[in-house]
Each structure stands twice: as structure tokens, then as C-alpha cells.
Amino acid sequence: MGRWNPTDYNPDDFANRRHIGPSPAEMEEMLRAVGADSLEALIEQTVPAAIRQADRLDWPALSEAGLLARMGEVAAKNRVMISLIGQGYYGTVTPPAIQRNILENPAWYTAYTPYQPEIAQGRLEALLNYQTMVADLTGLPVANASLLDEATAAAEAMAMARRQAKSKADAFFVAHDLHPQTIAVIETRAAPLGIRIVKGSIDTLKAEEVFGAIFQYPGTYGHVRDLTPEIEALHASGALAVVATDLLALCLLKEPGAMGADIAVGSAQRFGVPMGYGGPHAAFMSCRDALKRAMPGRIVGVSVDAAGNQAYRLALQTREQHIRREKATSNVCTAQALLAVMASFYAVFHGPVGLRAIAQRVHLHAVTTADALRAAGAEVAPEAFFDTITVKVGVGQKGILAAARHQGINLRPVGRDRVGISVDETTDAGVITRLLEAFGITEGAEAATTPAIPDDLLRESDYLTHPVFHMNRAESEMMRYMRRLSDRDLALDRAMIPLGSCTMKLNAAAEMMPITWPEFGALHPFAPADQAAGYHEAIADLTQKLCRITGYDAFSMQPNSGAQGEYAGLMTIAAYHRSRGEERDVCLIPVSAHGTNPATAQMCGMKVVVVKSAPNGDIDLEDFADKAAKAGDRLAAAMITYPSTHGVFEDTVRQVCEITHEHGGQVYIDGANMNALVGLVKPGEIGGDVSHLNLHKTFAIPHGGGGPGMGPIGVKAHLAPFLPGVPQEGGEGAVSAAPYGSASILLISWAYCLMMGGEGLTQATRVAILNANYIAARLAGAYPILFMGNRGRVAHECIIDTRPFAEHGVTVDDIAKRLIDNGFHAPTMSWPVSGTLMVEPTESETKAEIDRFITALLAIRDEITDVAEGRIAAEQSPLRHAPHTVEDLVRDWDRPYTREQGCFPAGAFRVDKYWPPVGRVDNAYGDRNLVCTCPPLEAYAEAAE
To answer: Residue 325 pLDDT > 70, yes or no?
Structure first.
């Protein structure tokens, strides 16, 4: 054979060569440091034998090329039509500069939620632009940095109105021309809160009998009307008015704020975000200034840093649900940050003049269509509209729909005798010609020039006046602006993000590519099912694999965030109990459960009973049994997180489930920590009745700066009949606007499962546990490690206790900010235990990066020792001055440590050093002086002074 040396290296082995970070040789080194003979021996010491699954996950793995070929075959089974269905989803043009530089750019899609503002200034600015855009277009002064979809935003607005209205009525009015899927989600949310829904035409509103009302503007069938009289009547009765609206329409129409609306909601989808068979899309909410502290979700605000420079941060109720737990007003955790960023750049890209031109073109295309239909004798409604009309076709409805499909166009069936037509940005004269041919009209339509909007409904106010919306829109300038903002951030493409419970793992490029293919991106969620055969094949196979992984019998893919999954899971349990004629409303939640659990239980109308933890972090079994017995036949559910949020596999998990079942309750196992279970433990086999899975954690959907996410729920067979219904058909229990939630990103998790294969997924879990134990072992002498398991092992994350350093004046904040100087995002701070850091390295971090992180933490420990032993005061130390900026480096240096120690600590790269754009941000200042839209340019000058 000469020099021919056969190799067993497989360059196409995605799981072991691309996704899993440490090489086999590095794993051997790490196992020696951990003190385990083998990876399997470590797992045996970590995961209780009594809960290990018997069967292996054994489906074969695909290479990246094999995956893309499979995806291409499946994509070809979808039929992309021109969608004129409307109903809240529209064709749109994603500017290529935004597609490539935002949606397809890991600097944007791999970033974490901006809880550490110093390393998130770029996306915070983009989200502030989004808030400004929404506030301007809706005419209300305060907007949040996105919600999940229009339907859930409307449901949140209803709950917000109930909390803030002076009226003591128990009813909420829903105008009958709201989108049907929005009505379905509102009804789901209202039931457990005891809110009575009154539906009817706007003219039937009795303002004195409701605490609030929601109107669609323009309505789902196209109607536009001035809502000022109805809003005034509501205000006279102490009730609040919510307007569900459309941002593109508001470029021409009188804005809700000018009508006196209290809250506006809607979707930013048609601002350059593909339909994607339902999502993800950024929903918006804006409100009057007086209501801002009641607004759910995230609000980006303007503050200052330690040097007095302007800096952005999340304001007000950041992570409210983790702090206030069952007293929280909302369980919103994942937003749709990446999609909000896209929509904000769409507005920057086009500017107010461009948006107005698009809106005018869309409107005149709708008028052209309506005029041609009326000229041919058709009955068209309404008289005043923006982009949507309905045509009365009588018994010919099916024929017209079929004729349109023959032309490659989908229309909306309305009732039994009408069809709806919604034109959009992608509509042109050719589409109108084909559309009219479906109605048997062959003469060319004359382009309309006169609007069908009454003068008193035309917008008079300016919008998007801030300079950011008036940039030179040359692509070179746009590209550089996006690059400047991304350079201010720290995302996974630069460094490890070791956040406990958030699983910031590799989002492989091959997994991401198909979501921008038009065969997946251009489908309307309510398109005929036979046009989405590819989606249904992908979703069915993903469902089957998730059932095998979890031990559950059925899944709903509808919840479009982890918190939505929790909500859907508890609502499924509640529906099951009701079907048996049982009134159960007590939910047991250990303090070690995931942070959103108590808020979710409260939203489902359940009474939260908190169960104590034992000193080792386990659920206090005696306290659990006692509280389950006291609840008795009122026990609805127990919500547990496994392994616990303390990062431990508890030996008692089966007993907890058995106690719950003995009293007739159902067990909800939170899937936040599924990355420690896949291939080793099936929650459905250890006593779980329902779990949600954070696909944006364990199953490789990227966090996107705080969203998108997906939280599908798996259930045992007895709960399957009670899963969420189909939203557009008014299905009972619907929790999201689209039947499969954010369907397009399900493709990412499917691709992950296909390329990893069953063995690869199991190996990923093992290595995640190895990486966490390696960090715990290397840091054990320097930092106390909380909640080691019975055999001295942690699960997939470990909690570092920094509380002992507080007596020397060193805070957990100081350590987190000092990690920024080392080029790292901080771990999860002060949760689940105040004054600690929760570290989760995931399986996809290499040993070199983990070692760099350990080096950084050990160097920080030395700096803490310098403070503790009196060599430097905490206030003068690099810990307190962190993070250090380039400005710090070049200005006069009067600190008792060197510039090199401050700016180039042991864990930092020298050549590729990450420089935070601002110093430590003053949170309190930002809340005292709340500014949550783009400040005028003078403010920048004042900050600089």
C-alpha cells in the first residue's frame, strides 16, 4: 500500500465533526479532569439509572449535502401560489440587503436576548427603531420591542385593558370583523380569566357593559371607518379601546392614536418578513403613555453609561415573570426580535416616502380590481377600503376559487357566497389580469388613480421623521449601517454564550438555508392543505421523531414560544379535567421550576402553591406530598423542570409524578432543560403527562436576539383530544394565530434531527453533560459550586455561587461585566438563586473556548482575592470599572491597575479583541427618565457633553 494509510475520518459526519465541539482526544482530557473513566461512566454517575430509557434513538444521520437534497425534494411538494387571501398575512418583498445581512447573518440570528445591554447595543438600536416606527405609525407614544403574533398581542391587550380600565364590568367586546384567528385566541385567553366575550358588529357595542373593546382597522373584510365615536363612548364608561391595525395601511389612513385609541396591536409581517406558512413574524403593541408600565413584553429604553454617554437597555418590566412569578401580568419570555429587526430595517430601507409609495400602489391596485369587478356587474364591498374587498359570487363560490387557483392565485372563501381579495406589495398588473380572468373578465382593467378612502380617513400627521429613516438609501450605506450595528454586539459567531437554561448552541448554516427558499417562505398559513404537502411531510416526520425522543404520543406544533407552550400545556390539562366533570384549579410549582411557570399557571386560572426545595436543591418531597394531599381533589397539575433549574437530576422525580397522579393531578414537565435528556431519558416515561420543548434551545433554532422561538407540546394519549384547535376556524383552545405557529422555523429543528441522527442527538446530550462537569471540576477550587447531585455531578449546567464575595464589595454584576472584557457574554445572573451565575456550555462549544472561559473566570477570581486581601478597593478595581471601552483605553488613566490588566485580561483575544461600545449602563437612570423611541439628535449631543 506504500504511503496509503486508510482513515476512519468521515468528513460528512455532521454530529461528531461539525456540531459537537470537543474532539474525541479532547474528551479524554476532559474526562481525566472530571475524574471519570469514560463518557458513559460519567453519564451513569449523573443520570439516575431508574429513569434511563431502554431503547436507543437509531435513525440514520444525513450529511449536509444529503440534508439539502432531502429538503429540496420536500420543498418541491409545496405549491407556491400568488396569495390574495389576506387575513393578516401578505406577500412582501424582502430587500436582498436585509435578507443577506440580517436574516442570513449569524451576527444577528445567533445573538441572545439583550439582558446584558453593553454587548447588545446594535440590536437594541435596531429594536428602538422598530418601537419608533410602530409608535409613529399608530400615533401612540410608547411601543414594545415585539410580541409573538397579532392574535396573541390582541389577547395580551385584552388582559392589559382589564387591569387598567376604571370600569368594573367583566365583559370584553370583540368586533365581528376581527380576523377569525384573533377571535379564537382571545376566546382561549379570556375563559380561564373569567372574562366574558361579547361579539357583534361595531354598531351593537354597549360601552357601559364592557371594560374594553377591540376593533379591526381595516376590518378583516376590508372595511375602514372612523372609530372616534365608539372610542369616546368607551372612555365615558371607564373602558379602554384596542385597535388591531395594519402598519402599511397606516401610511395612508388616519392613525388609531388620532381616534383616541388606548392600545394598538398588529403584525409587522408585511414589512419585509416572508409569510413562512405562519411565521415567525413580529407582532407590535403600542399604547398611551399612562399605560406604559402595564405593557407586556420588552421595551427598549435610552439610558447613559458610566461615562455619561448615551446607551440603550431593556426598560421597566424586564424579565418581570421571573421576578414576580405568579403575580406577573404576562408570561411573555421569547419575543420575535430578529423579525422586528428585519421590519425596522425595512422601514429604514424605504423611509416614509417609500412606505407611502408602496401603500399607495397597493391601494390603487385594490381600487383597480374593485372598479373592474363592479364594471362587470359584480357586487363588491365595502365602499371604503385599503387593500381588501369581498365579492358576492353566490353559489359560484367554489367555481371562482377553483378558476383562480387555475390562474395560480389563492383567494379567501368568505361565508358560503363571497370571496375575499387582498392585494399586497407583490401584486402587479399581470396578477390583476389573471385575477379578473378567474371571474370571466377578459377586458384589460384600467389603472385607477382615485383612492377609495374618504377624505376624513386620510392621514394628516407626519411619521418616521427621525433622521435614521432618512438615511441615504444607497445599498452601500445600508450595508454599512447594518454592519456597524452588528459589530456592537456579541453573538455566538464571536464567542461562547454560556447561559444556563438557555442552551445557546450551534445553529448550523445548512439547517438555516431552507427557510429562505420561496417554496417554504412564500406560503400563506391558510393556503389549501394540498399546496403545503411538503410542510406537512416535514412536520409529520419531526412530530414522529419528537414523540420517540420524549415518550409522548402526540404533539401540537402551534405554540410559538416556550411560554406559549407552557400555557397550551396547562390549558390542555384543564380541558381534560373539565371533560371529566372535575373542578381542579391548584397547581403545585417547586421553587426550582422554570421562571415562567407560575405566571403561566396564573394565566390559566390556576392557584399557584409553591413547594420548597431541600438544602441540596431537590424538591422537598415531604412538603410536596403534604401540599398535594391538602389540594386533594382540587389538584390540577404539578409543574416541574427536569433536570431541575438548579442543574441536578433528582432521584425522586418518579415519586413526585406518582404523588401527583395519586391525587388525580397531571404532571407538566417543563422542557427547558431537554438538552440534558435527549437519548437518555424520556419525560413521557418517567411520569410526565405533558411537556413543551423549547425548539430554540435544545433543537437548534437560533435565539435571534430574543426570538423567534417555538414551544410545541407533547402529550400522553389521554390528553391528545384536548390539544389546541385550528385558529382560523375558531378552534377551541387555539393559542397562536397560525395552526403550526412559526412553521418555517420548524424546518431548522427537523434539519437538526436529520443531520444529527438518533446516535448523534444522544451523543450531544452526553457531551453537554461532560462540558458542564468539566467547567464545574476546573472551577471547584476557586468558586463554590451549588447543587451537585448525590454523586457529585451536575447535569448540563452548573451554578457558581458568588454570594461570598459580596462581603468584600464584589457583586455578581461586577463579575458579569468583567467577563465582557474577556470577550464573553455573562452566564445567567441571579437566577434561580440570587447572587449566582448559572453556566451552560452546551455540546457545541470546543474545549479551547471552554478553557478560555475558565481562564477568564480564574483571572477574575484572582482580582476578587486582590480586593478581599486589601490590595485594591472594590470601587477602584477593574471589576467595578468593567466593561472597559476603547475610550477608557485612550483617555487619561488614573486607575491603580494597568491599562493592559483592565483592557486585555487573561481570557481576552489580543488581535480580535471585542470592545463594548459603551461602559456599564445605568439601569436606574433609564427607568427614571424613560425614553423608548429614537431620541432627537440634540440628545446625542447632550450625552456627548
So the answer is: no
Residue partners of 713: CB distance under 8 A and separation at least 6? 555, 556, 559, 565, 568, 569, 572, 690, 691, 692, 693, 723
| Among candidate residues 838, 857, 464, the one with its CA nearest the CA of residue 672 | 838
What are the tens digits of pLDDT across the range 790-812? Answer: 789 999 999 999 999 999 999 99
* Residues near 248 by beta carbon (within 8 Å), at least 6 away in sequence: 90, 270, 271, 355, 358, 359, 362, 387, 425
Q: Which domains does the chain have, with CATH numbers?
A: 552-742 (3.40.640.10)
Centre a 10 Å sphere on the Cβ of residue 610 and count the other Cβ atoms it contains. Answer: 16
Establish how many alpha carbons lie within 13 A of residue 544's alpha carbon, considering only the half-sphere containing its beta carbon. 8
Residue 68, all three cell numbers: 439539502
- pTM for the whole structure: 0.96
The residue type of 831 is W
The residue behind cell 398588529 is 266
Res 328: pLDDT: 61
CA dist 864 to 327, 804, 818, Å? 37, 11, 11
Q: Which of 547, 545, 542, 546 is nearest to 750 (CA)?
A: 542
* Number of CB atoms found within 10 A of residue 471's CB: 13
Three-state secondary structure call for residue 640:
strand
- 229-240: pLDDT as tens digits: 999 999 999 999
CB 338 within 8 A of CB 745: no
Q: Which of 151, 209, 205, 149 is nearest to 176 (CA)?
A: 205
Residue among 239, 280, 245, 40 nearest 147 (CA): 280
Exposure b/e, 62-80, CB count within 10 A at least 16 = b:
bbbebbbebbeebbebbbb
Q: Any residues with CB less than 8 A from the CB of 353 and at least 6 apart, and which?
A: none
Beta-carbon contacts of 658 under 8 Å, excluding residues fewer than 6 positions away, are 687
Residue 230 grid coordinates:
365608539
CA-wise closest residue to 785 among 854, 848, 847, 843: 854
CA–CA gap between residue 360 and residue 355 (Å, rounded): 9
Share of the chain above pLDDT 90, in %: 88
Residues 159-175: b if buried by 16+ CB within 10 A, e if exposed: bbbbebbebebebbbbb
What pLDDT is recorded for position 945? 42
Q: Give CA–CA dist 335/326, Å, rounded.
A: 20
Alpha carbons 98 and 738: distance in angstroms, whole number: 25
651 Cβ neighbours under 8 A, 6+ residues apart = 48, 50, 618, 790
Q: What is the DSSP annotation of 7-39?
A: ----TT-HIIIIIS-S-HHHHHHHHHHHT-SSH
The CA-atom distances, in angstroms, between 241 and each of 159, 230, 234, 256 are: 12, 9, 7, 10
What distance in Å separates the CA atoms of residue 366 and residue 169, rounded to the nearest whole number? Answer: 40
Handedness of CA 13, 14, 20, 23 (dihedral sign): positive
Q: How far is CA 263 from the centre of its chain?
A: 22
At 389, is the secondary structure helix, strand, or coil? strand
Distance of CA 180 to the CA centre of its chain: 23
Contact between residue 777 and residue 42 where contact means Cβ atoms under 8 Å apart: no
The tens digit of pLDDT for each residue in 600-610 reads 999 999 999 99
Q: How many CA atoms lie within 13 A of 259 on its CB side?
A: 30
Q: In degrees to the nearest 10, what's the CA dihedral of 879, 885, 887, 892?
A: 20
**Cell numbers at 353, concatenated:** 416616502
